[in-house]
Write a structure and sequence with these properties.
It contains 2 helices and 3 strands; from the N terminus they run H-E-E-E-H. The two termini are about 35 Å apart.
Length: about 110
């Protein structure tokens, strides 16, 4: 049987599309967290890389040092988004067998 026959290719493509859709749904439900300042600021992102929550402990808020709070928020957000990208790469690598496909979840 020739796996490259038109019917086989269409079926294989449809299966891959379904798998990609499932992975996207899973990534949308997954959450990654990062913190900065010893947990003073926490950022949560979805597996798709959407920022979904920021938590700032009251003791992190010092009106005389707003710049420090801004730096902590930025650090936590950057780390959370990096973790989301790593999760995306892991999930898509499982799907594609390590093959990087341009445009697939930001690859």
């Amino acid at each position: 049987m020739n796996p490259f026959k038109a019917g086989n290719l269409e079926r294989m493509l449809a299966e891959q599309i379904q798998k990609m859709q499932r992975v996207q749904e899973q990534l949308g439900e997954e959450r990654v967290q990062a913190s900065a300042g010893g947990g003073m600021v926490e950022a949560t992102a979805s597996g798709l890389g959407d920022l979904v929550d920021i938590t700032i402990k009251p003791e992190a808020v010092d009106p005389s040092d707003v710049e420090m709070l801004e730096d902590l928020v930025l650090a936590a957000v950057r780390e959370a988004l990096e973790k989301a990208r790593a999760l995306q790469q892991q999930k898509t690598s499982e799907l594609t067998g390590g093959l990087q496909i341009p445009g697939l979840f930001g690859a």
